[in-house]
Write a structure and sequence with these properties.
The complex is a heterodimer. Chain A is mainly α. Chain A is 55% helix and 10% strand. Chain A has 5 helices and 3 strands; from the N terminus they run βαααββαα. In chain A, strands 2-3 form a two-stranded antiparallel ribbon. The relative contact order of chain A is 0.13. The mean pLDDT of chain A is 91. By secondary structure, chain B is mainly α. Chain B has one domain. In chain B, the strands form 2 sheets. In chain B, strands 2-3-4 form a 3-stranded antiparallel β-sheet. In chain B, α5 runs antiparallel to α9 and α7 packs parallel to α9. The longest helix of chain B is centred in the C-terminal third of the chain and has 41 residues. The radius of gyration of chain B is 27 Å and the shape is elongated. The relative contact order of chain B is 0.17. Classes of the chains: A mainly alpha, B mainly alpha. At the A-B interface, β1 and α2 of A face β1 of B. β1 of chain A pairs antiparallel with β1 of chain B, so a sheet runs across the interface.
């Protein structure tokens, strides 16, 4: 599931790219999983098909997905993030939820820590 | 040999149809659209109500258009008796084409002007590709495809076997029968005479080409309707996801069941025509060379046992298809009925929202 936020500073194509990248690297989307067609995703998200096509093109350029004429867009194998790092992220999310922190709070803390 | 093979084919077809009906068609379960719609907020429920009303109106209009098509076929049949029953023979396929046009042209709404502020800022989408076969019965594509393939093959074979009637229309079955005898002066049969004739109505090219064209058009429109059902964007809001799926499933069942029923009703009378013509073409007078004919009476006509068995098998399959068609029609009305309940949500749900 991906969600677009109209008030988010980055545009819809970037939001789609970032969320699908995260889903692939976290293993939520597995190798050879098929992504919805550009038209389906664009219709469901109420955006132009070109915006979704742009996001898919960027994912393809990054080597995360491949597009075949008959097969649609599928996830490439070997894109899972290093497992220990993923475990740490999941642990952080669980701890933040237990502490009652919001996603924005956690993202802010991560950004500060990242830049420190 | 060929007739025996056809007999086995008909038997296999009948067993397949009976198994399919027993295992799949009687065991359909319908979701309660109203209770699924009640899962949303007040605005979402109002929008779900609009979807339900549109779904209901569309299906009712499609059925009404189908019924009007049937009436038009009856009127045409009465007005043009020279057409030799062509309007009636092609009526089920034509009725389905009309209904499928309604399904294709009338789009179920998915976007509404009044949405909650939260939903106007955030839109969500699942990453599971939706396909034509995802919504509706598992047999929704297979059964119509098999029936369509069998009908097309049967009509082509019947067309090849058919011959012209007195006006040159290929709606008769030509045959050769041993219907006479040459006698010598002692009234002994010296030669059995073969006579050529033709019997109709038979589903030759005259009926087959229009019916095939309508069936192809109807199946194309049906697939288009199923495809647009899968492609239609989802309604906004996670709470209505199950409702949205149930609406698609309802459409999938209505389209697949409707087309399958009409296919059954289309094939059954043609099979009965063919069975009757086949049985008639196998009638022979049992003269035997050397037989003494005392002139006391003409020997009665006897039927060719294999052709009679084949005709009987075809008649049984036709009756079976009529029963399956009727069962499917009842199921179809059940799916329509699922959208016809009054759109009043439980008071508790309203209070919670």
């Amino acid at each position: 599931m991906i969600t677009l936020d109209a008030s988010h500073p980055s545009g819809p194509a970037e939001q789609i790219r970032a969320q699908i990248t995260a889903l692939i690297q976290s293993g939520e989307l597995e190798a050879d999983d098929r992504l919805p067609s550009v038209r389906q995703l664009a219709g469901d998200l109420r955006i132009a098909a070109g915006t979704v096509a742009k996001a898919y093109k960027e994912l393809e350029a990054a080597g995360l997905v491949r597009t075949g004429r008959a097969n649609g867009t599928r996830v490439n194998p070997g894109q899972l993030l290093d497992a220990p790092a993923l475990r740490e992220v999941r642990r952080l999310v669980a701890a933040a939820r237990n502490a009652g922190m919001s996603l924005d709070d956690v993202q802010g803390i991560v950004a500060v820590t990242w830049n420190a | 040999m060929v007739n025996g093979f056809a007999l086995l084919l008909l038997l296999g077809f009948s067993v397949g149809i009976v198994l399919l009906v027993r295992r799949n068609i009687f065991t359909q379960q319908r979701s309660n659209l109203l209770s699924l719609a009640a899962a949303g907020t007040i605005i979402e429920r109002a929008n779900a109500g609009r979807v339900l009303r549109s779904l209901r109106a569309r299906t009712v209009v499609a059925l009404a258009v189908m019924a009007l098509g049937g009436v038009a076929a009856l009127v045409l049949h009465a007005e043009y008796p020279g057409a030799a029953g062509l309007p009636l023979a092609a009526a089920p396929a034509a009725m389905w084409v009309l209904a499928a046009l309604v399904f294709v042209a009338w789009r179920i709404p998915h976007e509404f002007s009044d949405i909650s502020p939260e939903l106007s800022l955030h839109t969500s989408a699942e990453l599971t590709p939706r396909s034509t076969g995802m919504f509706g019965p598992a047999w929704g594509i297979v059964m119509p495809a098999v029936l369509l393939g069998a009908s097309a093959a049967g009509l082509v074979v019947a067309g090849i076997l058919s011959g012209p009637d007195e006006r040159g229309r290929f709606r008769n079955l030509p045959y050769v029968s041993a219907g006479g005898a040459e006698l010598d002066q002692n009234m002994v049969v010296t030669q059995v005479q073969l006579g050529a004739g033709s019997i109709g109505p038979f589903p030759g090219w005259y009926y087959g080409i229009p019916v095939l064209a309508l069936l192809m058009l109807g199946s194309g429109l049906g697939l288009w309707a199923l495809s647009s059902n899968a492609r239609r964007p989802r309604m906004r809001g996670m709470r209505l996801r199950a409702f949205d799926d149930a609406v698609r499933t309802n459409v999938g069942y209505v389209v697949s069941t409707g087309f399958s029923a009409m296919l059954c009703f289309q094939v059954a009378p043609l099979l009965l025509f063919a069975a009757s013509a086949l049985h008639g073409s196998g009638m022979n007078a049992p003269y035997v060379v050397g037989q003494v004919f005392d002139g006391g009476g003409v020997p009665g006509m006897t039927a060719d046992p294999l052709l009679t068995a084949l005709a009987l098998a075809m008649a049984v399959v036709a009756l079976l298809l009529l029963i399956v068609g009727a069962v499917l029609l009842v199921r179809l009305l059940g799916w329509v009925g699922a959208t016809v309940r009054p759109l009043q949500f439980p008071a508790t749900a309203r209070a919670i929202a």
